[in-house]
Design brief:
Layout: E1 2-13, E2 21-26, E3 47-53, E4 58-65, E5 68-77, E6 86-91, E7 96-104, E8 115-121, E9 125-131, E10 148-152, E11 162-167, E12 172-176, E13 181-184, E14 197-201, E15 204-208, E16 222-230, E17 233-240, E18 244-249, E19 254-260, E20 269-279, E21 282-294, E22 300-311, E23 317-320, E24 325-329, E25 336-342, E26 345-350, E27 353-358, E28 366-373, H1 375-382, H2 390-401, H3 409-421, H4 429-438, H5 445-449, H6 453-467, H7 473-494, E29 497-503, E30 508-513, E31 517-522, H8 525-530, H9 534-542, H10 550-571, H11 574-584, H12 591-604, H13 607-611, H14 614-617, H15 619-651, H16 654-668, H17 685-717, H18 719-722, H19 726-755, H20 766-773, H21 779-785, H22 795-802, H23 815-831, H24 845-854, H25 858-874, H26 878-883, H27 887-903, H28 909-927, H29 932-937, H30 956-973, H31 977-994, H32 1004-1021, H33 1025-1034, H34 1038-1055, H35 1059-1062, H36 1072-1084, H37 1094-1104, H38 1108-1129, H39 1134-1152, E32 1161-1163, H40 1167-1171, H41 1183-1189, H42 1191-1197, E33 1200-1202, H43 1203-1221, H44 1236-1244, H45 1248-1258, H46 1261-1277, H47 1291-1296, ...
Keywords: Nucleus, Transport
Subcellular location: Nucleus
Main location: nucleus
């Protein structure tokens, strides 16, 4: 019998079925188990099946895995709901028989637990378990004792082991190795009731009770049991291992058919499986498929097809059709997993594919086998696992494409692998987690579930980077090959096919895998051509061509496809991946540059690329690869040349070939279908299947269109060799290439939507936070909204759920229905809802972008709209887009909104600036498009549009004015001030022209004032102070200008940038008075400690404008405020405040010194001007109002300050400042006179310079001398080791000048000494000497005061030499005696006598007398002049008397006697000398 095989469909995984988390329930050990049970068989593979219950149906899949033979996994899902997140695992006490049945619970009170589960262990213990809805089970759930019933089906040791099981809602049938069959009424009768257990035997229609041994002949072991219903009769089909088939009527437990299917029994041949189905063409026919294996020949298996004819009457009669069919199962397809019979179709699931056989064909001599590609092949192809050289091709082609940027090769290769690894259908949650664990990356469930797409990429890249030994493309490629191989092996191991899912109602077919569930779809027409199934569908394809000569065109088309296939195989699977990646990387890598570079590889091969990596590959390996590639290239060139010549010969001309290609390109264009979009789309299994299937179709269509593009480009490059004319080449370039580029773009966008993961919403995104509240309470929308950012939740789901309702199947879709839903979805993406045929697909991109914008998919919107914009500007349709209702403006507007949103998504630096600049560019372009006003006003609110408030036709200028203002507000709301400023300036340009339209209700001044105020605000926020100033002076609205100026000053003050006001950079033309008034208003209401202080700004501002008096007034007012409020508010900072006061006074003095002396004065501020505690809220009045209201009072209370008064205050403030540094508190009230106590305090603190400064400033004449005497007396006392009470000073000075034991000053009881002295001396004596020498010119008697004070304090003190020398106004050797100034030797002589220092007094007198007597001859004449010599004779007499008194009293008698004799001798000689001199004078006179 002839047989042909063709590819008819593909497996489509259900999104979410790989992420099910199971709730585990455990069953206790059964008490019904028998100790003598036979040894249970060992499971050899994973098994699974499906039970379908209800309408619309619920699908219950169950699996028993070889790794956990005692665990039954159950999942429940529906076609019109989302795939559940939880499943159920029931843990049995022992390994399970590969059987389970889930059915509806028909018992009473079954609403709480609506389902029943039949299962049996390998030891023969059967279970009936009542189940709730699977989604109701949680981690804390457990089975109650009344939720299950168990029964041992093998109570007697002589019975054979169970070999087959079947069941319905109330019945379980067990077939055994001894050929017997037992029926158990589980759930209906009590186990002890009669009839609970019945055995089906040939010798008794009613059977016998359990335990009675049968004496009939023994039957072969039961291999399979099937319960099926025909004509409301429930029949049991029993297949024995020897080929015996028996059919039983379960209503009366009678056998109605028996036949041996084995024609010639042979050793090792075993019948193992039977499938039963209905024949739709004949309702009285029962179709059967029986699987027979020959154990003697490995891998030999045959499926035989039979027909039983059913007839009813008094009894049921079955008649076997003698004609049979046999289907041989080839070993190359792998082991058989499952077979199912449904709707005259036999489905055979094997390891390497799914095959569907038509049971009844019109031509019985030929039957077709339709293959369905499993997901394993798709995953292998995407991860370059199918061919050894496919991944190497990726590297070498990347070298060719990225020849100008070699450093981008490794990231490019990694990007390709990442994209394919996370593709829907390839990405599997559990597989990736296991693979990462193999590379020492461990995650908890919560950690892995929280990973978004970006998180997964980062984890995978970290593994690759860790594995890379050297940072080279070959090392990176090798790491990816290792990782993907591990991933693929884990995928195959984790997703082993367990069984088939068949819905006989809809003919839906699916595959139950170990960790997922999938369905099957039919191939598209183009897929049938690409995958080599054109013989079956060639007529359908050619019927769509324009030409009537369909046979010739079919032949030409097939040869064209052969050429396409040859070229595609030469480039390998890497070429589409590289081209797709270039589309994603546009514009950094233009896809237009990729095609020529790929074709260049067909001319030169990989030699240049491999030469760069000889050191890594090794010379031998590189040489072998180069030779191999060179052979391939030569063979390709020859084959392609011959194929093209044969193609042209068959079509007769190249124009005919191009015509067929053009027809084929039209065939590639997505077809348009009508849509029913009334219902709201929800996230369902049907939608998940549609999205996944769409991605598969789009991939094939995209790659097919790319292959045609490559062929056309190859024809152009080889035109001279194959004989193409210039006209034909031009047709290719100008007509066919643009057409295929558009087709590629369309399928690329469909593929992009179907495979690109959605973006996860940002936490700070308000819209996403609002969405998370789920105010509408829609559970389905809440569930899919949580999926944003996950790899399996692509953009297509958002489109289906947001605008296109998508398919909503109650049942799971059959292959054709699923294919139809893909066509409708692709049609909706390209053509939209409109009935009219659009000029281009891109008109629908606006609606798609709006849906994506609603859910924060900004990157996707940017990519799609940028792609459309680029394509539109490249093509000649630009003009039509601009004039076609403003659609282009809408596109640009949405693109600008997208750029703004992206800039807010965590971007920084140049990336953010680039997004903002792109948004500005888009908005300006959108405003310039014709018809933009009408188009943009129709946008919904989520597009960021605020309606303009007018509906009539407006002028372009008025439209731009409003649009620019809207853009300005959008940027302002997002703190993008520079962009907002651009639109404010652009709006200003439109104001004058827009006024003529009559739309504006405001005056031009008001509009311009508002816009200039915005420009001012933006530039000020950007710290563009000069631009902000220009905006102020450009503002025509005076009120707005004043407000801006005030704001300008306040902001400059707050930012510490007020220097710009005073450095002359800003001219303030016509604004000087306003600026000064604003600063003054700010100063009046600012705290004295504010930095910078407004009064200082006023001072600098006035100085800059040479207004010296006003500058002095402002800075003095600052000093005055500091005096009152500074000390009051912050006593701890008193010294700093005093320093500030000094600076202010100094500045005021300096300013007044620049004024003519006649005008060098300022007004003294009134007390209430600065004594008030700064009011934060006070009515602002002008200077004129203030002067008019307070004129009389000001004249009465105001005084004037000149430089002298300011200097007085400066000196007193300086004294107060220095005292504060010494921790002495003092202040002054008036500046005309200085209090005496300040001098005392300054002296106490050793602040002598300041004390003398105050004295010289405020005292004159005798008062000055008295103050100097007081100060030096106090200073002298500090020099005495033992200070006595001062002589001649007041009580206050005496009380203040006390010393501690360390000879240091104590001020107000503080143990800490004052700061370092201001004088140069390092001791009190040096200080006293220094100041006495300096100030004795002001008062000549000061040395006398000092000596008197010292001797009064200590009469025995040794006067310093420098002090004694100050008394020698005339030196003793001059012979002039003891005369001189107030501080003469006679004064010192007197002090010695007054304080009992007779020795010093005598020595002093003797010195001068001896000096008088020992003059040189030249000086004698001067001595003889009248009154030339003077001695204090009265004091000498007093000294004589004191010495005599001392002798008389007996005090120091010897010393006194000695002094008296010296004094007497000196006086005698002196008097004698005087007599001689007198005689000489008389002689000279006479």
């Amino acid at each position: 019998m002839g047989s042909r095989s063709c590819l008819a469909g593909m497996e489509v995984p259900i999104t979410g079925s790989d992420s099910v988390k199971f709730v585990q329930l455990s069953l206790p050990s059964s008490t019904s188990a028998s100790a003598s049970s036979p040894t249970p068989p060992t499971g050899i593979r994973d098994v699974g099946s499906c039970s379908i219950i209800g309408n619309p149906p619920a699908y219950f899949t169950w699996k028993i895995c070889r790794s956990q033979p005692n665990v039954l996994e159950i999942m429940e899902f529906c076609g019109h709901k989302e795939f559940p997140k939880t499943g159920l695992q029931i843990v049995f006490p022992e390994a399970l028989f590969p059987f389970a049945v889930i059915c509806k619970n028909e018992m009473a009170f079954s609403s709480v637990k609506p389902y029943l589960l039949h299962a049996m262990t390998v030891s023969g213990v059967a279970y009936l378990i009542k189940l709730e809805n699977i989604s109701n089970y949680v981690s804390s759930s457990h089975l109650q004792s009344d939720d299950f019933v168990d029964f041992n089906t093998h109570p007697h040791p002589h019975q054979g082991a169970a070999t087959a099981v079947a069941g319905t809602a109330e019945l379980m049938v067990v077939g055994r190795s001894d050929g017997s069959v037992g029926c158990f009424q589980l759930g209906i009768l009590d186990q002890r009731a009669p009839g609970f257990v019945q055995e089906l035997r040939d010798d008794s229609g009613l059977g016998r009770l359990w335990g009675v041994l049968s004496r009939g002949r023994s039957n072969a072991a039961v291999q399979d049991l099937v319960i099926s219903e025909f004509h409301q009769k429930r029949l049991l089909f029993v297949l024995h291992s020897d080929g015996s088939l028996r059919v039983w009527d379960l209503s009366n437990r009678s056998r109605i058919f028996s036949h041996s299917l084995s024609v010639s029994p042979s050793a090792g041949s075993t019948f193992v499986r039977i499938c039963v189905g209905n024949d739709h063409n004949n309702p009285d026919a029962i179709t059967m498929a029986v699987l027979q294996k020959d154990e003697s020949e490995v891998g030999t298996a045959v499926i035989s097809l039979y027909s039983l004819y059913f007839s009813t009457g008094d009894r049921i009669n079955l008649l076997l059709d003698p004609s049979t069919k046999s289907i041989s199962l080839e070993e190359s397809q792998g082991d058989l997993i499952d077979i199912k019979l449904a709707s005259n179709k036999l489905w055979i699931l094997r390891e390497n594919g799914l095959v569907m056989k038509e049971l009844f064909c019109q031509n019985r001599n030929e039957e077709s086998a339709y293959c369905y590609s499993l997901q394993d092949a798709f995953v292998a192809e995407q991860l370059f696992q199918g061919s050894e050289n496919s991944s190497d091709d990726l590297l070498w082609l990347s070298h060719t494409v990225l020849s100008s940027s070699k450093d981008q090769i490794s990231p490019f290769v990694s990007s390709v692998f990442l994209h394919r690894l996370l593709l829907p259908g390839v990405y599997h949650r559990n597989v990736l987690r296991v693979t990462l664990r193999d590379f020492s990356k461990h995650f908890t469930d919560s950690e892995f579930d929280s990973l978004t797409v970006d998180g997964l990429k980062n984890e995978i890249l970290s593994v690759i980077q860790h594995e890379v030994g050297a940072d080279s493309p070959i090392s990176v490629l090798q790491s990816w090959k290792t990782f993907c191989t591990c991933y693929y092996n884990n995928w195959c191991r984790t997703n082993v096919a367990c069984g088939l899912l068949i819905d006989s109602t809809t003919q839906a077919v699916g595959v139950i895998r170990k960790n997922s569930v999938s369905m099957c779809r039919s191939l598209e027409d183009i897929e049938l051509l690409v995958f080599g199934s054109s013989d079956e569908h060639g007529n359908t394809i050619c019927s769509r061509f324009d030409s009537s000569d369909s046979d010739l065109e079919r032949e030409v088309l097939l040869e064209i496809l052969q050429c396409v296939n040859t070229l595609s195989q030469q480039l390998g699977k890497a070429a589409p991946a590289i081209f797709y990646e270039s589309l994603l990387r546009s514009p950094s890598l233009s896809s237009e540059e990729v095609i020529p570079r790929l074709l260049k590889n067909l001319e030169s091969g990989y030699s240049s690329s491999m030469a760069l990596h000889v050191s890594e590959l090794g010379t031998d390996v590189a040489l072998d690869k180069e030779i191999s590639y060179h052979k391939r290239l030569r063979k390709f060139s020859v084959d392609m040349f011959l194929s093209l010549h044969n193609l042209c010969s068959r079509a007769t001309t190249w124009r005919s070939v191009l015509h067929v290609i053009e027809s084929y390109l039209k065939f590639l264009v997505p077809r348009k279908y009508e849509h029913n979009l009334d219902s709201e789309g929800l996230f369902t299994v049907s939608i998940a299947l549609t999205v996944q299937a769409t991605s598969q179709v789009a991939k094939v269509m995209f790659e097919s269109a790319l292959d045609v593009h490559l062929l056309l480009s190859y024809l152009v490059n080889s035109s001279s060799q194959i004989g193409m004319s210039e006209d034909e080449v031009s047709k290719v370039k100008l007509e066919l290439v643009p057409m295929i580029q558009e087709v590629i773009t369309e399928w690329h966008i469909i593929n992009f939507f179907s495979t690109t993961p959605s973006e996860s919403p940002l936490l700070e995104d308000f819209s996403s936070q609002l969405s998370s509240l789920q105010l509408d309470g829609n559970v389905d929308r809440r569930s899919w909204n949580e999926k944003l950012g996950k790899s399996e939740f692509t953009l297509a789901f958002i489109l289906l759920l947001g605008g296109h309702s998508g398919p909503s199947f109650g049942h799971l879709p059959d292959p054709n229905s699923l294919s139809k839903s893909v066509q409708e979805f692709a049609s909706w993406i390209i053509w939209g809802r409109t009935e009219a045929e659009p000029s281009v697909f891109f008109s629908h991109s606006i609606g798609l972008s709006l849906m994506l914008l609603r859910h924060g998919q900004y990157d996707a919107v940017e990519y799609v709209l940028s792609l459309v914009d680029t394509y539109s500007r490249k093509e000649k349709i630009c003009q039509s887009l601009q004039s076609d209702g403003g659609e282009w403006s809408t596109l640009l507007h949405l693109l600008g909104c997208c750029f703004i949103a992206q800039s807010q998504c965590g971007l920084h630096g140049t990336k953010k600036e680039r997004k903002i600049s792109e948004a500005v560019r888009c908005f300006f372009r959108a405003a310039s498009v014709e018809g933009a006003a009408k188009a943009l006003q129709s946008l919904p609110n989520e597009a960021g549009w605020l309606h303009l408030g007018f509906s009539q036709q407006v002028s372009p200028a008025a439209w731009k004015l409003h649009y620019y203002q809207w853009a300005m507000q959008i940027f302002e709301q997002r703190n993008m001030r520079e962009a907002a400023c651009q639109f404010a300036l652009a709006a200003l340009e439109q104001v004058d022209e827009a006024l003529g339209s009559g739309v504006l209700d405001e005056s031009a001044t008001a509009v311009k004032g508002r816009l200039w105020a915005n420009v001012f605000k933006f530039t000020l926020d950007l710290n563009y102070y000069y631009d902000a100033y220009c905006a102020i002076i450009s503002n025509p609205d005076e009120e707005s200008k004043s407000i801006c100026l005030r704001r300008f000053i306040i902001v400059l003050y707050e930012r510490g940038a007020v220097k710009i006001l005073c450095d002359g950079q800003l001219p303030f033309i016509g604004l000087s008075e306003k600026v000064e008034r604003e600063l003054a208003w700010k100063a009046e209401r600012s705290d004295v400690s504010a930095k910078p202080n407004p009064f200082k700004l006023l001072y600098a501002f006035a100085m800059q404008r040479h207004n010296w008096r006003r500058a002095a007034s402002y800075i003095y007012l600052y000093s005055a405020q500091l005096r009152i409020h500074g000390a009051m508010r912050d006593p701890q900072r008193r010294s700093f405040i005093l320093q500030e006061r000094l600076n202010g006074l100094s500045a005021a003095i300096n300013a007044l010194q620049l004024v003519h002396p006649a005008y060098a004065w300022i007004d003294s501020p009134l007390e209430e001007t600065y004594s008030n505690i700064y009011p934060s809220k006070r009515a602002r009045i002008t200077m004129e109002e203030q002067s008019l209201g307070n004129g009389t009072q000001s004249q009465r209370q105001r005084s004037y300050l000149d430089v002298e008064k300011l200097e007085n205050e400066f000196i007193l403030t300086s004294a107060e400042y220095l005292l504060s540094l010494a921790n002495v508190s003092w202040t002054f009230a008036k500046i005309e006179t200085a209090p005496t106590d300040v001098i005392d305090l300054l002296v106490e603190s050793s602040l002598y310079d300041m004390a003398f400064t105050v004295i010289l400033k405020f005292w004159k004449g005798l008062a000055l001398k008295r103050e100097l005497e007081r100060v030096f007396a106090a200073m002298s006392l500090k020099c005495c080791p033992k200070k006595a009470s001062s002589v001649g000073n007041g009580h206050r000075m005496q009380s203040l000048l006390l010393t501690s034991s360390q000879d240091e000053i104590v001020v107000h009881g503080s143990p800490n000494g004052p700061p370092a002295q201001e004088s140069k001396g390092s001791s009190h004596w040096e200080t006293l000497e220094l100041y006495l020498e300096k100030y004795k010119k002001f008062h000549a008697k000061l040395p006398v005061v000092v000596a008197d004070t010292l001797l009064a304090a200590d009469s025995q003190i040794e006067l310093p030499l420098w002090l004694v020398q100050m008394f020698e106004g005339v030196p003793a050797k001059s012979g002039g005696g003891m005369a001189g100034s107030e501080s003469n030797p006679a004064s010192l002589f007197r002090l010695y006598i007054d304080y009992g220092r007779y020795t010093e007094a005598t020595n002093l007198l003797l010195e001068y007398i001896e000096s008088f007597a020992s003059l040189r001859p030249a000086d004698i004449i001067r001595r003889k002049r009248p009154f030339a010599v003077w001695f204090p004779y009265s004091l000498i007499e007093r000294l004589w008397c004191q010495l005599q008194q001392s002798i008389k009293l007996g005090h120091m008698v010897d010393q006194s006697e000695k002094l008296k004799k010296l004094l007497q001798g000196a006086l005698m000689n002196h008097l004698h000398q005087l007599k001689v001199d007198s005689d000489d004078v008389m002689s000279s006179v006479s």
